[in-house]
Amino acid sequence: MIDLRACGLVLLAALACSGCRDAEAQGEDFLPLIQAYFDKEPVCVAVRRIPIDTNDAWVQGNLRTLVDQGLLAEETPPADVSAAIGPSRRFTLTQAGAGFYRAEGLPEIPRQPVLCFARREITGIVATEIEPPRGEEDFALEPRKARITFDQRVVEIAPWAEAKAVQAAFSAIPTQLRTSGEKGKIEFVWKDGTWLAQPSYAFPLRDARQLGR
After folding, report:
1. What is the dihedral of CA 136, 21, 153, 157, to 10 degrees?
2. pLDDT at 209 over 50
3. Distance of alpha carbon 36 from alpha carbon 181, whole angstroms
4. Cα–Cα distance between 156 and 169 in angstroms, integer?
5. Distance, CA of 179 to chain centre
6. How would you class 53 by CB atoms within 10 Å of its CB: exposed for 0-12, middle for 13-18, buried for 19 or more?
7. What pLDDT shows up at residue 15?
8. φ and ψ at 168, to 5 degrees?
9. With left for phi above 0 and alpha for psi between -120 and 50, is residue 152 left, alpha or beta?
């Protein structure tokens, strides 16, 4: 299970380059920095905000695949809710489901609830483009940048995300899993003696905004 409590905001977060200085940075120095970035950007799928009351048969069907996996519970909503929106069902998180659910979303899509089901493991640096140090005046106008291409794979996949019914209901899941093995790119800037990770769109959550389609 992914420990989402360890995840925090990463947009423009300062990631200290261990053992390297501005003029000495090498490609491999960025591997732990990239890993730290993606440890805070787990592999997820967008979902509707839970708990949810819905009378939509299609939505109910999708959510029932998560009920079958023990992530959600289904029940009859209060009478006043049904009276307002018609015959409906209420879906709530189980204790197991709460471990995967992230109501605040991810830095790339804040405020969009997600279910996180895996993480990316950075396996190597493929290519680097590290700008040389410059004078203070030039640096003030344009920060020094490093562009890194890396190898990665998707690991620690939650068993429920591999269920065929869940993947059929939430097509972003198999799409995300297929990114395993693809090369990614990420950019850093040098500021105040530290390499700063920029928001990465190497794997831009693909179909995560589909809300289950």
Report:
1. -100
2. no
3. 18
4. 21
5. 13
6. middle
7. 42
8. -70, -35
9. beta
